[in-house]
Each structure stands twice: as C-alpha cells, then as structure tokens.
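Replying to the earlier thread about multi-chain prediction with a worked example.

Input:
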Amino acid sequence: MTTQRITLTVNGMTHAIEVEPRRTLADTLRDQCGLTGTHLGCEHGVCGACTVIVDNQPVRSCLMFGIQAEGRSIRTVEGLADGATLSPLQQSFWDHHGLQCGFCTPGFLMLATWLLERETPIDEAELRHVLSSNLCRCTGYQNILKAVREAAKGLGKWVESAPA
Amino acid sequence: MNWTGKRLPRLEDPALLRGEGSYTADIAIGARAVRLVRSPFASGRIISITPPAEMSAGALLVTGRDLAGLGTIRPTLARFNYVAIGQPILPVERVHFVGQAVAAVIADTPERAEDLAEQVMLDIDPEDAVADLDAAMAPGAPVLHPEAPGNVLVEGQLRQSGCDAAFAGAAHVVELGIRSRRQNATPMEGRGGCATFDRATGRVRLTASCQMPHMLRTGIAELLGMPEADLQVVAPDVGGGFGQKMALFPEYPLLVWLARKYRGSFAWIEDRNENLIASAHSRDQRHVIRGAFDADGTLRGLEVDILSNVGAFSCYPVTCGVEPLMAFAEYPGPYKVPAYAARARGITTNTCVMAPYRGVSRPAITFGMERLMDRAAAQLGIDRVALRRRNLVDSFPCRTAMGMTLDDASYIEAMDRAIDAADLPAFRARQAAARVEGRYLGLGFAVFNERTGYGTPAFAARSMGIVPGYEVVDIAMTPLGEIEARIGASPHGQGLRTALAQLIADRLGVTPDAVRIIHGDTDRTPYGWGTFASRGMVIAGGACQIAADKLADRLRVLAARMLQADPAGIVLRDGQAFAGEASMPLAELARLAHQRSDLFGSDVADRRFNLADTASYDPGGTFSNACHLAEVEVDVETGLVRIARYLVVEDAGRLINPMIADGQVHGGVAQGIANALFEEIIYAEDGNILTGSLADYLPPTAAEIPDIEIIHLETISDASITGAKGLGEGGAIGAPAAIGNAISDALAPFGVDITELPATPARIRALLRGREPTP
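Result:
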C-alpha cells in the first residue's frame, strides 16, 4: 500500500507524517502522532469515543481519513488542559464524577467542549440531545450530564428549560 | 480527619481526563498485529485452511495444527453432574459457533493483517447447528460435545421435604414462565492483549484488558506448559469489564505462545464486531416459577425450573454453572420460603460462550420473583406492598432454604422508603386520569437482596475446581514516608484506588494522596483474584484495613521508642505520631526505621528491619439489598416505553466514598434498563448472529436513561469488617423487574403482563394486538 506525506496540525502543533491514504484519522492520531487519548470504541461511527474537533466541528475520527484532515485544525483531548490546569469542563468532570473507566471520556469531553464553545445557550433538552451522540457504559450518563450542566452554568451558557 | 464516608474526587481521574490513561491498545502500538480469522458457521467440520496466495514479508498464518500438544481451556466443577469439556485455543477438527477463532494472521500493521485475514480460505463443511434452548433440547438434536449427550453440561436438583405438602395444601398456586434474552456486557473498551518477549530474561509480559490478571497468568501457563514465573500479566487501565473480562479467552494464550515462539511482541486488539459475537454473552435464560400461597398471602413453597443457554463451551474459571447454579441457590432472594424445590440446567448450544455479567443470574431471578409477587397479589386480591411485607425476611440473621445466612439488612424498610417516596395515592390518581385520555402509566417496584463480598467458603460450596475468594494486601511505608499498598485485586474502572486509599488513610492518620494503591501487575502484587461479584470494597477493602492496622501498630511501637512513651498511647494523626503533646512526623519515623534501625534494636522485640506487612481477608459474605421503583408510560400504539421516574433505595452498608457508590448504582441501573428495554443478542435458527454491530445491538444513550434518584440506607453488618457491603452489581439487578412490573401495571387494563425481556416495542405490540382495554 502506498503512503502519502502529509502535515497535520493537532492542538496547534504540526506533525509531518507518512500515512496510507486508507488510514483513519483516529489511527493516524494514535499511531503516528502519539496521541493515544483518542480512543476507538466501535470503528463504526456509533459510540463516539473517538470524537475530536476538526475545524470547530465534532467529528468521529474513525469515519474520517487522516489525509482528509490535512490543512485543518484538529483538537484532541490532549489539548484541553492549559499546562497543569484542567479546562473548566475537565475540572467539572473530576468534581462531579463524570467518568469511571475513562474510556469514553475523551470523546465526551471533545463533544461537550464543542457544545460549550457554541454561541447558543444550552438547556436540558439540548444537552441530552447532543450528549446522546456518544455511548458510555459505566456512568448511566447521570454524572456526565451533571458535569457538563455545571460547567455550562459556570461559563454562563446554561438556561433553565421553560416549564412544560 | 475521617476520610471514610467522604465524597472525595477520584485519584484516578486527572490522567484519564487529560487523555493520558494507558489502555491495552495504547501499549500495543508498534507490536506485530494479530488478526483472527473467525468461523462463519455455527457448526461444521474443518476441511482445510489455506493461506493467502501472497503473504507479505514477515507475515504468518497460525492454525490449530501449529498448536498441537497444547491444552484446552477446561474448567471443572465437582458436583451437579458437570460435564467438563475443553475449548481448544484454535480448533483443528470442528467449529462450534459463529465467531470462533480458527486461525490467526500476523502482519506488521493491523491494516495489513486484516487484508491478509480476508484472503485466508476456510474450507468448512457445515453441519446442523442448535442455536437456542428448544433446538438443543429437542429429541434427536445434534450433539455439540460427545461427552454431553442431550447437550446438558450441568444440572442441579433439589426438592425439600415440605414442598409437596406446601403445594398440595396451598390455597393458591401462582405460576409464571419468564424469558430473559441474551445480552453482551459491552464494555466501551473491547478485549485486547499485547504479549512481549524479553530476550534478556526469557520472560513474557502480557498486557491484557482483564479483570483477573493472576488467574489469567496461572491459566495461560498451564495451557502452554510453561513456567508460570516466566509470565507477567499486567492489567493496565481497563475500559470496563462488568464480568466479561473475568474469563480466560483463547486469544490470550495464543498471544503468549506467539511471543515465545517468535521472540517478539504481538498484539490483538478486538474490534466491536468481535466483541459482540465472540467475547462472551449472558442472561439467556428461561424459568418456570410456581409459588404455593396461603389464603392470606403467606408463601409456603417455591418451585423453580431454570434453563440457561451457556453457549458452546464452559467459561474459565467459573464454569458454565455460574448462571444456572446461582439461580438455583439464590432464587428465594429476600423472601421467607419454608419449602423450596429447584432444578437448574446449563444447556450447550452453537452460540458464543456464556460468562458472568453484572448481577449474573440475579437480574433474571429478581424479575422472576418480583413478577411472581405481582401476579400473586393480583390473583389473591392482596395489595402488592402488603403481600411482600408478609413474606420478606424481617429478622436477622436468617438461614435460607439453601443454607445461606442472611445478615442484617433492611428489606422491608427499603421497600417502605421507596413506596413513601413514590406517593402511591397521587400516582393512582394520575394513572386513572391518564387512562381516560388513552395514556397508560404504570408503577412497578422490585425488592431484592444480593449476596456480595463472599470469599472462598461460598465458592468452595459450588465445588469449583478453582476456588477464588480471598484477597491479599502487601503494605509498606517507604523510607520517605509514602504508603504503598499492593493489592491482588484488579479494578477495571470502579475507582478502587481512591476508595482503598481513603480506608488506609484513616487507619494511618495520613491523607489519601499519600497512599499509592498498586494493582493489576502479577510482578508487583500478591496473588489475588480480582474485581467481580461485588467484592472489591468488602474483601480488598477488608484486607487493606487489616494491613493498615498492622502497619499502624508497627509505627506506634517505633514512635513509642522515639517519643519514650507507651505504644498504646500513640495516636497517628495528620501525618504525625503523637504521644500527648510530643509528636514526630511519620516520614521521619519511616526514615529512621529504614536507615537508622540501630536506634531500635533491642527495644523492638522482633528486630524487624522494614516497615511492611501483609494481610489477607476471606469473609463468608454479606447481603446488600435494595428496592427499585420505576414509573413508566407505555405508548400502546407503538409499544414504546418511556421511563418517567426511577428511584433506588439501596443498602450496601457503610459507604466508603458515597460519590463512587452513587456512580456504581447509576451505571448498574442504566445496564438494567438496557436489559429491560433495549439490548438483545439475536441468533438466526442456523446459528448466524444478527446483532454484530452497535447499529443492531442497542446500548442506551443519554436520551433513554432518565434521572436516577438514590436513597442510601446504611445497615452495618458484622459480616464485613469495614461495614461495607458490595454494591457494584445491584443497580443492574433491580431494574428489569421494576420496569417489567411497571409496564405490566400500565397494561393491566389490557389483561396482559410482561414475561419476556427486553420488552421491546415489537414484543409489547405483540401482546396488545387485538386487545382492547377494559375500563
């Protein structure tokens, strides 16, 4: 299988690598950029564990080829913290027990990071709708929802739903 | 400072949140990739396996013939007419289920290994398969294993003397048949392993996503006929397990064999399809339950017939008896059953192997018992709560029909708390109003107990060839004053590092972050069993507590020498040893103990030169209990169930970290809801599996799981030295019964109730078709 030289920009750093065109972005990030925080849970685009942010959109990195990401801005879980300081969302996951085994966590963090960076305020229905993109098997989602909700409140992005 | 009982954020989390966890697939990068070629047939004779026409340089094909002379995975049980059958690492003659590994292809990258695996030509002569209980038990059915004519691998039978009289004299006999369909535990991280040969020592390190690293090491070494001491098994960060990762799977000995033979590093990382079809399945059971009741609702006798589809082989080490025999032993649950009769059989079929999954048989038996109670209440015209109150065990200790001792618990109190919180009269009013509008609300609850934290006595009673149970902890204080506790148990995401550190911190007067819990590495930890059967906090926790107390005693002796005081008067607190007003830092004491042992010499009787001790704990077991309550709305047009409210009142004794405890309950309930409504592994009649992706097999998302309310009760039992009872599984146990009862309550006007799980829209529509509600 022939390979192609590409340059990927991940978390603001450039990676000059040689990849097979068929290699997924997830495998490229993991195997060739050394960024193993992005996890593969199904490789079918269902579970969302491999979610990363590409040009400000959440993306299943198992459904995109590495070469398709050239020239784009890729963000992974490794880029969330500022040095020793966790991002407010990461801190909220820690404070509210939003993770157990930790395998789905990077995908949820990237999905929710995207959610919290949007201009639009978030209510309960939108929160559930967006987070239902990803699967978690440990938490029953309770504390993931809580962690994102509390982070949104802290960032002034939360609105209470209109009473039914 | 008292750390026990605090909602301490987990010590595990920062690395996991930063994406700096270390899972098996992360460690496997760079190893040669192993891809398994799996059987497309449920049953058949292997004629030939032909390698690809062009193997790339360095690529390999390994078949069962290459493994000639190696053992089979063959767990044993000395009772219950158990038939021991062996599962080959790779079969030579026959395949027994779709997904069974028949060959392995090795290449330099996973992509190339997959390419080559697709080109391997399997010539298999298919034979008739039996994929379900009925087919396997039919007269003249194909026999999977010649040792087991009739396809029965294990059978327990019991009929207590009073049973006939209880049924003969019963005012009412209530009967119920239930069916629990097959599930897959579906950890987010599948199985996987990486075996690396160390040329300098001749040893192999197997990193594997597993729950029982020590057992895995013993099992693999035995199969391969290699010295166990030449194998190190490491469980790194493990992305969930829920029981599925307890078993010794054929892929792991294969990896170790490859590493030794080719003196290299070989990795297999399971994909989701493999996990769904070829890891382990659970919960495929059918029960018939009969209860003999007096006119006043007193249960006089219980009779159950349990069938469990255990798949093609017997899981190691717990055997295929794990589901049927648990149901056999524990069916009466929290109820007084004066006379009990049970028959339980494990039936082999051409399907994936059964292994334990969170709760094992208890979700099904609780569904059976609690549906029986609701049916009995309806049949006898007695209120559901009153009927249960009459029959629940209410004085402790209580010896069960099967000879187990129920320790202090809160069966009735948990039910009462749930019923109070539910506000039944208000619900009945809402239900009646909704029915007028053609909307069907239902409320159901389930009361159960769960045997947790049991050590070797309980496993020995099952007569397993391998008897798990105890846990050992080696504790030490370094010369610089940190505490290391090496535990034989191996967590897979529960947060044991944090909770055990809390326990130890309190005994030694330090902060939890001064305690390192070392686990999941057979080179660095004492032999132990693992995390399963809701045992971690009880058994590893108990061992940690004993070990910490021993270390504390030692520190007190040394401090007494330095502070010229009586050891009994030394208090360990805030990282210091106090004798009245005088004190010294524990770190200073640790340094002196190691580096100035000359100071202690003759004053310390045993002349020990280190600050280390070991402890073990092997309790007989305790019983957690809970009441789950669900309120649902059933759309009778579509059969869709919406959960409007979910409440858990649970009693797991003393909570070491209530935040972690809540998380365990949440996760268990979500899996129980999945069991009740969504998840089902489906086989076609020919044994082909129809649910091989997450588009077909349906774990619920945040949209399906409602808010889960939890009320904790804390009954402290002396059956656990920490006061903690196990709670890892309880969430999954109560939900199917509570939801099944809630749907049945909603559909009562139609004269139908739920006896089969998951209660999918199709099943509910099938029940309702052609029926009209009676007002």
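The CA atoms of residues 499 and 578 of chain B lie 26 Å apart.

Feel free to reuse this layout for your own posts.
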